[in-house]
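4.2 Preliminary Data

To establish feasibility before requesting continued support, the project team ran the inverse folding procedure on a target of 271 residues. The structure was first converted into the token representation described in Section 3, and no sequence information of any kind was made available to the design step. The complete token record follows.
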């Protein structure tokens, strides 16, 4: 009878230098994941359910997305991205507590013409394995998306470029509303509006609804384009957003405009 040369599991582990206890370990279905993907999923849940706070977004990431992440990590990511539940609502940047903040000027105001009031804001945009920030300006009355700027930074410069570009293309509004982010309390931004004699308006702290025009547009952009398109480079993203803006402005009917297109509705007041 041939000699049994089979080694026991214990002997095999000794020969191979393997810890025997780890041999029977079965990895969890929840695995660590790249920071960019975590941020993309946080942005997704915040966009789809803007009322979710840290605890509930953490639950969605762990239960629905099977992401191994702690609540503190979720809180840190959301702070970095400047997003939170609608109430209270952190924006894409922290405001300067010492800065003088203008009042909200649109409450109770009847807006009946284009260029009476604009809204400007910044949002996180998923880009394959990285991300960008989108600054955009919308006309409160006509819903026309006036101008936009992509950047990989949250500094004030892209905001200034976006605002000045909108002034050159579309004229100057009476009021320009924003949140309390540091870009909009910066000296450069306030001086720019002062040079053009534009009244600066700001949401109250946590008052997402006061800048709702641009917030709703961001949601439409993400749901209808960003989340279903795999953009790999900033160039691809710029082309994609440009196409979406063109379609939104010239082809998309709005019930609030009696099914007119924003560009045609806006321009009809300047013929």
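Position-by-position output of the design step:
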């Amino acid at each position: 009878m041939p000699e049994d040369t089979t080694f026991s599991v214990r002997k095999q582990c000794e020969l191979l230098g393997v810890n025997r206890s780890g041999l029977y370990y079965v990895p969890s279905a929840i695995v660590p994941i790249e920071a960019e993907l975590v941020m993309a999923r946080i942005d997704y849940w915040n966009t789809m359910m803007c009322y979710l706070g840290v605890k509930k977004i953490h639950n969605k990431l762990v239960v629905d997305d099977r992401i191994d992440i702690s609540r503190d990590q979720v809180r840190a990511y959301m702070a970095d991205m400047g997003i939170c539940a609608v109430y209270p609502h952190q924006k894409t940047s922290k405001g300067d507590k010492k800065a003088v903040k203008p009042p909200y000027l649109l409450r109770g105001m009847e807006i009946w013409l284009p260029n009476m009031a604009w809204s400007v804001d910044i949002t996180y945009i998923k880009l394959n394995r990285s991300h960008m920030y989108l600054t955009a300006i919308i006309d409160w009355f006509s819903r026309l998306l006036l101008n936009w700027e992509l950047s990989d930074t949250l500094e004030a410069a892209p905001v200034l470029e976006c605002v000045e570009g909108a002034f050159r293309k579309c004229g100057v509004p009476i009021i320009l509303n924003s949140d309390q982010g540091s870009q909009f309390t910066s000296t450069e931004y306030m001086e720019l509006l002062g040079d053009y004699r534009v009244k600066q308006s700001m949401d109250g702290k946590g008052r997402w609804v006061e800048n709702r025009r641009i917030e709703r547009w961001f949601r439409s952009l993400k749901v209808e384009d960003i989340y279903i398109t795999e953009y790999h480079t900033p160039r691809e993203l710029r082309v994609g957003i440009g196409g979406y803006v063109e379609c939104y402005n010239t082809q998309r009917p709005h019930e609030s405009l009696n099914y007119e297109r924003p560009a045609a509705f806006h321009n009809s007041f300047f013929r």
